[in-house]
Design goal:
The protein is an alpha+beta fold. Helices cover 27% and strands 41% of the residues. The protein has a single domain, classed as Lipoprotein localisation LolA/LolB/LppX (outer membrane lipoprotein receptor (LolB), chain A, Clam), CATH 2.50.20.10. The chain is built from 5 helices and 12 strands. The protein has a 12-stranded mixed beta sheet. This is Outer-membrane lipoprotein carrier protein.
């Protein structure tokens, strides 16, 4: 009986040790990622984007450029195969589909809160408290890859991979609950771009239909 008790105690102790070691590794990875994200106050790069379904079939591919100024200001411009511009001005999120000459505008906070974009655009994101983080081993010393899953039940993604080359953000891969994945690769990265004060101000062209979803949210709140 004493032998069985001692064996059980060793197994239990080992289990707790492995658990705490795992939590420690996750915390280290989260702090490391937090530091890299905190270093990005502004950012500019070109991108290619590819969306695949659960069978790994390509659904869509596009390219363009991305500009970011924290907090909550960015411009995502698709040049090919269709022209689209998504602009966050700090308060509103504007989506301009040039091919159909239509603009959708919504409140920025409501649009970003549970999305991967919040990690890059908000002034401060608490990676340690809000996400489960693991660092994935890489063969290249300068490459750091992090895997994230949100602790929030209403998160719009299942898994997020973030890749850095040194301090440069070079890739994102988002997987949702339906098995669809989006891979974004960045090039020509600039971590110190200079933007004019009004660079992220969006002015709707005359004659373009504007669908204002902010009014719908306000009306629903009043009701």
């Amino acid at each position: 009986m004493k032998f069985l008790f001692e064996q059980s105690l060793r197994i239990l102790t080992l289990g707790f040790s492995l658990l705490f070691a795992s939590l420690s590794v996750q915390a280290d990875a989260a702090h490391k990622l937090q530091e890299k994200l905190d270093n990005i106050s502004s950012y500019k790069a070109t991108f290619t984007q590819e969306i695949r379904d659960e069978f790994n079939i390509v659904l869509d591919s596009s390219n363009g450029y991305f500009e970011l100024q924290r907090p909550k200001q960015f411009r995502w411009v698709v040049k090919d195969p269709y022209e689209q511009e998504i602009v966050a001005d700090g308060v509103n999120l504007w989506q301009f589909d040039r091919d159909i000459e239509q603009i959708n505008v919504s409140g920025l906070d409501a649009s970003l809160d549970t999305t991967p974009a919040a990690i890059l655009t908000k002034d401060k994101v608490d990676i340690v408290d809000d996400y489960n983080v693991a660092e994935i081993a890489s063969d290249t010393p300068s490459t750091s890859i992090f895997q994230l899953s949100s602790k929030a039940e209403d998160a719009l993604f299942e898994r997020l991979l973030i890749e850095f080359n040194g301090d440069d953000l070079v890739a994102l891969q988002v997987s949702d609950n339906l098995g669809q994945s989006t891979l974004i690769e960045f090039s020509d990265v600039d971590l110190e771009p200079e933007f004019a004060d009004d660079h992220f101000t969006f002015v709707a062209p005359q004659g373009v239909d504007v669908i204002d979803n902010r009014k719908e949210v306000a009306d629903n709140a009043d009701n």
